[in-house]
Amino acid sequence: MTRNMLNSVAELQAFVNSHRRIHVVGRRSKPALHQVDADVMLAELSGLRGITEYQPQEYTLSVRAGTGLSEIQAALRQEGQYLPFDPLLANHASIGGTVACNLSGSRRHRYGGIRDFVLGAGVVDGMGRAFRVGGVVVKNAAGFDLSKFLVGSLGKYAIMTELTFKVFPDAPVYHGLRLRYRLLEDALSAVHRCNRSPFELDLLDFAPSSQGWSMLAGLAGFQDTLPQRAKQFVAMLRAETALLDAADVTDDAALRDPLADLTGEYLVKVVIPPRQIARFDDRVRAMPRRYSAGGNVAWLATEDIGALKQILEAQQLPGLVLRGSVDCPLIGKPLENLLAARVKHVLDPQNKLV
Amino acid sequence: MNHPFIDSLKKIYPADRLLTRDVELLPYESDALTAFQTKPGAVALPVDEDEIIDTVRLCHRMKVPFVARGSGTSLSGGSLPIADGLMIGLNRLNRIKRIDPEQRIAVVEPGVINLHVTEAARQFGLYYAPDPSSQSICTIGGNIAFNSGGAHCLKYGMTSNHVLGMKVVLADGAVTQFGSESVEGVGIGPDLVGLFVGSEGLFGIALEITLRLMPAPERYRTVMAAYDNLGRAGDAVSMVVASGLLPGAMEIMDRLAIKAAEASVGAGYPLDAEALLIVELEGEALQVEAEFAELRAVIEESGAFEIHEANSDDERARIWKGRKGAFSAVGRLSPDYIVQDGVVPRSRLGEALVKIDELKTKYQLDVANVFHAGDGNLHPLILYNGREEGALEKAEALAGEILAMCVDLGGSITGEHGIGMEKREYLPTMFSPVEMEIMRDLRRAIDPEEIANRGKMFPAGEAPALQMRGMHPLERQGVISRE
């Protein structure tokens, strides 16, 4: 396996044109994704970095794929804006890897995930062609939207070199809450109540704790009204759910990072419909876990990836291994799809991108 | 149409759901791009997905082009028929199969009317966010084909952002499913939902769709501000954005549009204004009231000569009725008109409006402007009289210059109507030859015979005849409107 640092689109094109099997690497924040055969050439894109265009007035940001998330977030913060999909692994990952793996954080609950904020991309495909997909303005309906297709595509169809996002103004202040429930079914019923309430939660996660289940909620807004909104929110939960107690959370980082408490050899993302959580959780009780985005994504740590794989296969849920040694990071429900295969045939007919 | 094909269709459809006589085909000869008109060879009216699949497979086998059609409200001519092709009318697949309030999803068939989803979800305190102006009649299948938008796209996104999963039949008859009931949609693996939505019917037909629902806002606050010139209204939008507020909608109408809408609806618009800005905030009551106080201060600073807040739900509804019906209202002032929906970066709206004004003078045609100012989505309405020789060509030349301007300013030739028939010659102005080639290859990889909505999106395809101009019959009756 040879590592090759590629610092421009032209270098990447030349690299694709001169090699038979290629695997893309950003900042290696998700090691499980990079266990490839010895004959595969690694295309390292962490040198392809920098914000190429940021127009706060337009709510748009264009950035090279290898740029670190922390650099992007710092630039946005200066203008009071943020990436509403709340990229995961913010201190380590590149933006390209985040999009390729589709890793949104807990704050995606408010406005949506990566697919909801990607506007366009510059790419190099398996034929070595450099081109753009999507657009650069916040609204565009011209042509096939391959920029959305690339979200979650793991670099197997085309290599993203630049990405354009819609960004939003961030709220001035934030109020975190930890709400305690005795049983999972109590927490689930509270999440369902929240999902149908007019409260616009920035974050809505839940996880097992030493004393039952904790529901983690975040409200964002103005200083003047936030305490009152939080009070009303807790009052609703007290009146209508089996809430044991509620506490303000001052440690923002722990509240917002769904992976904060997940230690274990393997780290896995599972896409799960909320209705399936009770059945799923019954099988993964021994694993540290957190349910995110109102119970639509599960994050799990485990020492036994084989067991988790079997559970996911039995329950027809797709999983992506981010950490730990695996032959293939995709586990659980098979993802083969004939439409995806046809796109692959157009963008990478020689099957170079692995 | 050739007899063997019709004979095969008869094995799928009873006589009352297979239309072949001229008089039966008449309602299907056009859509909301009334410039084009041609009769399809036949119209099939399936009632379930098996009939759609059988029909698509038959078309593929016999190499007959087909067009899937919902309510025929496409403004870009996306659902225009193909002469000697088959029209597949999807209106009878109009079942909302399931609403799951706990998961905040609706599972629907493609012929379900957009607004019916919200009506069905309302009892659970939920709604379906994409709100194209034709939402009372357009279908989810059509919304998916053209990635329809509406007034609230900046904050909530377009149709694509509200589709979580789909079952589709591709143009060669293969059936596939992707996505899930999680808000992540596909979540792991390439986002096939994102690719299929907005493919303008060129990949196949959506059979079943899982939609994301949202909690209905607790409070709306809507304000109208009148300005003595369009530039000042545009500046006000920039001021709102700079303040850090994120309104659900920001709309601007010019003098001609204001007058026409007021005459048509009586929305309470100020008739002495050169430009009217409508801004709407929605969400939690306490938060919205706090934001509204800020918004009010920004608007007061923006040079508006009159500011009016909606004081009741009825008043808010009237304001939106005027806005959503503005183009139909303007259209009534002229025998014929063309609507464009190009996008420019919001900060270049002022430049775009000046340029449109210059083009008005150059071509000696009236143009009314109504636009989604929050996302820079223009909707210039070019008025002309089709009975005057050369008037149509002049209007089309003006429209073409507006699209070129949108591209020059770094925008898009379409924000929400799609390319369809209308803008296909302009697609190469936005995409390089390599990008065009890749999109064509993609189309052929999915539809080798190029039978699904043939002649749309790509330049120089088979086109229906250009025959007439004017309002869509439903538009004349006030049932639908252009945005």
What's the short story on this structure?
The complex is a heterodimer of chains A (354) and B (483). Chain A has 354 residues and is of the alpha+beta class.
What's the arrangement of secondary structure elements?
The complex is a heterodimer of chains A (354) and B (483).
Chain A: E1 2-5, H1 9-18, E2 22-25, E3 41-44, E4 51-55, E5 60-64, H2 69-78, E6 81-82, H3 95-101, H4 108-111, E7 118-125, E8 130-134, H5 146-149, E9 158-166, E10 168-169, E11 173-181, H6 184-195, E12 201-209, E13 212-221, H7 226-240, E14 245-249, H8 252-256, E15 266-271, H9 277-283, E16 289-292, E17 297-302, H10 305-314, E18 318-323, E19 330-332, H11 338-347
Parallel strand pairs in A: 1-3, 2-3
Antiparallel strand pairs in A: 4-5, 5-9, 6-10, 7-8, 7-9, 11-13, 11-14, 12-13, 15-17, 15-18, 16-17, 18-19
Chain B: H1 3-10, E1 18-19, H2 22-25, E2 42-44, H3 49-62, E3 66-69, E4 86-89, E5 96-100, E6 105-108, H4 114-121, E7 126-127, H5 140-146, H6 153-156, E8 163-170, E9 175-179, H7 192-196, E10 204-212, E11 214-215, E12 219-227, H8 230-242, E13 249-254, H9 255-265, E14 275-283, H10 285-301, E15 306-309, H11 313-324, H12 326-331, E16 336-339, H13 349-363, E17 367-372, E18 380-384, H14 391-408, H15 427-430, H16 433-446, H17 473-476
Parallel strand pairs in B: 2-4, 3-4
Antiparallel strand pairs in B: 1-2, 5-6, 6-10, 7-11, 8-9, 8-10, 12-14, 12-15, 13-14, 13-17, 16-18, 17-18
Helix pairs in contact in B: 9-11, 13-14
| Radius of gyration of chain A (Å) | 21 Å
Quaternary: heterodimer
Tally of strands of chain B: 18
Question: Which structural class do you get from the secondary structure elements of chain B?
Answer: alpha+beta
Overall body shape of chain B? globular
